[in-house]
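Look over this entry.
=====
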Amino acid sequence: MLLDVQDLRVDRIVTGPQGEPVPEPALAGVNFRIVKGRILGLVGEHAAGKSLAASAILGLLRPSARLVGGRALFEGQDLLRMSESDLTRVRGARIGFVVQSGHATLDPNSRVGAQLVRAQSIHRPIVKAEAAWRAETIMSSMGIPEPRLRAQAWPHELTPGIVQRVVLGLALINEPQLLIADEPTAGLDITTQVQILDLLHLELRRRRIGGIIITRDLGVVAQYCDDIAVMYAGQVVEQGPVMQVFARPAHPFTRSMISDAPERLGIAGRQIVPPRMEPEQGCSYRPRCADATERCLVAPPLVGAGVHAARCHFARIAAA
């Protein structure tokens, strides 16, 4: 097992009626696993907790969020219990991270090649000439034309598509075992989105590393992922192999997402912010579920057969 996330819980700190800080549940026991060489699609609506889960795993929570509990076992070591110095050595080396905005990732005051060189020297002793050669090599493998010339460019001189290729190169240059891509094509045109996703998929397969693609687009999951974890209101409500979940979705939210975009299993069209988690409310999806009963006033467990599971009292999952 490459990454095993168990009962991950995070609170957001909001302002109370008297101006006091008040914790509000944001992740309420998130569980999922990544196997080496397989790609997980972490999917759900806006504000479901997808990016928050990735930030918590990597120790990148903002001051407005607080880790409450859980474990994130990466190669047997709990990332959530690591010191900041140990976690810094893991991030960017053993775990690569691609965020939504490439321009926000790159240092505007440093040339692209210098940033790729610095990303290597932070994690291991390396001769500058070798690091520069590896920087040009990774840029070439990312499909960036004239890599030596582009290495001398400033980030603002590059197109958004080239910038995102550079960011992917930064995430891969230290040969990580896991890569987390948080909506890596946000803000790009359709053609460039496909190119970046094809490249990401190719590199993950070629390098045989585990991957997490965070997205709201089921079409991306269908085409590029092996497994799926569906998030709603801070919980994983269904998970399993992609083909099995798409063929027999067990949770009503998963069925709703699929039926919302039948033409291409694409973007879940309704951008509804899920309700905040309340321990006493039972199933978080109950207010939107046509099949809800009084039984749903009690929070459902995660039930399933084998690797396919759903958090629903009425889930019917056949063994694969």
